[in-house]
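To close the chapter, one final illustration. This time we ask the reader to focus less on the individual chains and more on the assembly as a whole: which components sit near each other, and how the overall shape emerges from the parts.
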Amino acid sequence: MNRGNLIVISGPSGAGKSTVVSRAMTFRNDICFSTSVTTRKPRPGEVDGVDYFFIDQSRFDEMVRNNELLEHAVYVSNSYGTPAKFVEEQLEKGMNVILDIEIQGAAQVHSNKPEAVMIFIIPPSIDELRKRLTGRGTENEETIEARIQRAIQECREADFYDYIIINDDLDKASEDLSSIMNAELCRFEKKKDVLYSFGK
Amino acid sequence: MNRGNLIVISGPSGAGKSTVVSRAMTFRNDICFSTSVTTRKPRPGEVDGVDYFFIDQSRFDEMVRNNELLEHAVYVSNSYGTPAKFVEEQLEKGMNVILDIEIQGAAQVHSNKPEAVMIFIIPPSIDELRKRLTGRGTENEETIEARIQRAIQECREADFYDYIIINDDLDKASEDLSSIMNAELCRFEKKKDVLYSFGK
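The assembled structure is written out below.
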């Protein structure tokens, strides 16, 4: 069994990150999402170990202290984090584990796991992003403009990512994601044991 | 038009390098082989500019002096080299240019063009390599053993390659090659202009 890769995916809201990942999941079975820990209370229907690992603040703080989280952040007074152990177990099973997180969390993962594959997904243009955000019909013009300004800012901070996927066409974007997964499994470091086994 | 990548492919004789590339060429049209210059005389049927660029030794020496070759070597008293200009023209057209060369030449390209994508193609095992070389029926046992020892030595020297493709199954190996091409076109450096165009 070949070990999978940890794949960090970020990008502006409206870039279509989860749609691209979901599409790739329809044609390959070695992709899974990471399950986060949170101190938030479960909502009706949420299952512990599926939607999140629900834990209390003292356990969360302990995980932070013991370096058990690849990244963590506070959002609306609740703490969220990515447990290293869960990710490690999935990688060992040969899964490509997807972390769909913001740039700040991604920077933490990049630092804690330098081998993580960092992918930034963007829309083809700001005009297209505006069109998509407007098309949702859920936000007013002011909110949309704020999102766009934030997207521009995020793009400026994304210089530590390895790859950029332009989500112009969903088929092409999900194929690019899949190609990156294949390519990363062919990395010298991942395959060198086979190479060096020759002659032994 | 997006610029293509320079792809260096090496690997032991019998690994199936050209078969893997040819297979990939059946399903994508952005791959071409580099055309080498040589001081060897054309054989019947060989076309200048197609099989090789046929040049004389003084022109060859001039190309070396002027740094017009990405790599060069002498083989059976004739000089061979990869002209930078031809490669550059193809890359500009968006082609992925394949250099099928030995490790020594590959090391020269790696040094002259650090952005070149370095791929090492290997058979799944030495036993399988022996089987393939024997299956050709063109070489005696002694020659085959010499090739195998050389293959083992080459594998030890291949530590500057970016990727390893294990050619166990031809479909999988050509798909891996294609995935690497796609992934390399998504590299941050290749796409960052789009990213930074946002907000301008």
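The mean pLDDT of chain A is 94. The longest strand of chain A covers residues 69-75. With these observations in hand, you are ready for the problems at the end of the chapter.
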